[in-house]
């Protein structure tokens, strides 16, 4: 039985009935790793999302406190908490969208790949639960190294016979959010007016902002291009160093994850023209997984857009990124296959 400190089970049912009668059904969303640095603010933001009717908060520690806290927010989503592996199945059953920020973050001096040994096993266990309890859910994978954890999740789902590449998305939204912010700073405009496609993957040189495709159309000097590319590729490290051992990006990541989850839910609802960048199974280049612009719809990723024209600088960046990306993808796949 999940614990619920918001209210008793009868009144939850009463509220769910009310909502059904009112005709405003929403989506059921689970956050795995909900008590963490990303998980907590993300839980708060998802509780504020009017498209969410039920919010399940799962973690191996501290989820009762987070659930009690979040449940006092006077928004309509019903919140339930789940603690420990034994409750994973209940946390996942019936979910439309599962967001995974579970795992350890970087400390200064670490690369995302240094997290592989711990996070690969965590992602494997959680995806086995998804395959069993909500095989049709959309999965938003945040745990690093994303370039390897997405292939791990795909292999787990293939083994279970539930793999649908349209429903598995590595979250690279923070790279786009950072790119929009720094490009807006350089252009001296509001970041909400800026759209920078960021392709490739989610680690160092695999993060490839396409500054030649920025909207509104803009041109940059070579110095600006070097500066912007460096800030976008190393934004995560900038935060890890500033936090000096206390973790990696959590607040900007929770914002980005909530923005991305909202796009997935609007797609599920049937809204048209929902386009975001994500790390997905792809055929846009020769690698089996790649981040690029995708259109989100009722079945998840409904279209993957071609990269569009790249300039010489971007083509060189892509060539450099491919080698690292290929190795990270292979590492994830072999973690499950071996
Ligand atoms: P954190 O350590 O603050 O929180 C992680 C949470 O996961 C903890 O509450 C922990 O108890 C939980 N957890 C550990 N094992 C679990 C399991 N087996 N099942 C469920 N929950 C489990 O870490 P933080 O800062 O929230 O980061 C989480 C992950 O997100 C890290 O891997 C980090 O590298 C990644 N990240 C990804 C970004 C992206 O752009 N995709 C950006 C920033 C971080």
Automatic annotation (TrEMBL):
GO CC list: cytoplasm; peroxisome
Q: Which residues form the active site?
A: 202 (proton acceptor)
| One Pfam family from the record | Ldh_1_N
Q: What is its EC number?
A: 1.1.1.37
Q: What is the top-level taxon of the source organism?
A: Eukaryota
Which residue range or ranges hold the Lactate/malate dehydrogenase C-terminal domain? Answer: 172-335
Ordered alphabetically, the record's keywords are:
Glyoxylate bypass, NAD, Oxidoreductase, Peroxisome, Tricarboxylic acid cycle
What reaction gets catalysed by this protein? (S)-malate + NAD(+) = oxaloacetate + NADH + H(+)
Q: Where does substrate bind?
A: 106, 112, 144, 178
Q: Which InterPro entries match?
A: L-lactate/malate_DH, Lactate/malate_DH_C, Lactate/malate_DH_N, Lactate_DH/Glyco_Ohase_4_C, Malate_DH_AS, Malate_DH_type1, NAD(P)-bd_dom_sf
Q: From the Swiss-Prot or TrEMBL record, state where the protein is found.
A: Peroxisome
Record-level GO BP terms: glyoxylate cycle; malate metabolic process; tricarboxylic acid cycle
Residues reported in the UniProt entry to bind NAD(+): 33-39, 59, 119, 142-144, 253
Q: What is its main location?
A: other
Domain annotation Lactate/malate dehydrogenase N-terminal: ranges: 28-170
Q: Which molecular-function annotation in GO is an example for this chain?
A: L-malate dehydrogenase (NAD+) activity
Return the NCBIfam families for the record. MDH_euk_gproteo
Which PANTHER family has this protein been placed in? MALATE AND LACTATE DEHYDROGENASE, MALATE DEHYDROGENASE 1, PEROXISOMAL
Summarize subunit and interaction data from the UniProt record for this chain. Homodimer.
Family to which the UniProt record says this protein belongs = Belongs to the LDH/MDH superfamily. MDH type 1 family.
Name the record gives this protein: Malate dehydrogenase
Task: Tell me what organism the protein belongs to.
Answer: Nelumbo nucifera
Protein encoded by which gene: LOC104605538
């Amino acid at each position: 039985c999940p614990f619920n400190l918001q209210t008793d089970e009868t009144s939850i049912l009463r509220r769910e009935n009310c909502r059904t009668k009112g005709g405003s059904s929403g989506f059921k969303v689970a956050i795995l790793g909900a008590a963490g640095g990303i998980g907590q603010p993300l839980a708060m933001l998802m509780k504020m999302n009017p498209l969410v009717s039920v919010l399940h908060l799962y973690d191996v520690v501290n989820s009762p406190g987070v659930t009690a806290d979040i449940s006092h927010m006077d928004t309509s989503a019903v919140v339930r908490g789940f603690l420990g592996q034994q409750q994973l199945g209940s946390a996942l059953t019936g979910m439309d969208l599962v967001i995974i920020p579970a795992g350890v973050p970087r400390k200064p001096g670490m690369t995302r790949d240094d997290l592989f040994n711990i996070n690969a096993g965590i992602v494997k266990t959680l995806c086995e639960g998804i395959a069993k309890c909500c095989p049709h859910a959309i999965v938003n994978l945040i745990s690093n190294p994303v370039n390897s954890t997405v292939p791990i999740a795909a292999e787990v789902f293939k083994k279970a016979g539930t793999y649908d590449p349209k429903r598995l998305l590595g979250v690279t939204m923070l790279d786009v959010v950072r790119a929009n912010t720094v490009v807006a700073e350089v252009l001296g405009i509001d970041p909400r007016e800026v759209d920078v496609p960021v392709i490739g993957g989610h680690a160092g040189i695999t993060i490839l902002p396409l500054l030649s495709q920025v909207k509104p159309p803009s041109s940059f000097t070579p110095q600006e291009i070097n500066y912007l590319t460096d800030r976008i590729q190393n934004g995560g490290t900038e935060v890890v160093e500033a936090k000096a051992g206390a973790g990696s990006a959590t607040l900007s990541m929770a914002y980005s994850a909530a923005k991305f989850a909202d796009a997935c839910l609007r797609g599920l609802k049937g809204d048209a023209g929902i386009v975001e960048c994500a790390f997905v199974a792809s055929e846009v280049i020769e690698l089996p997984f790649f981040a690029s612009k995708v259109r989100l719809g009722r079945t998840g990723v409904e279209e993957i857009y071609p990269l569009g024209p790249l300039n010489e600088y971007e083509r060189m960046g892509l060539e450099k990124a491919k080698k690292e990306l290929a190795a990270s993808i292979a590492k994830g796949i072999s973690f499950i296959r071996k």
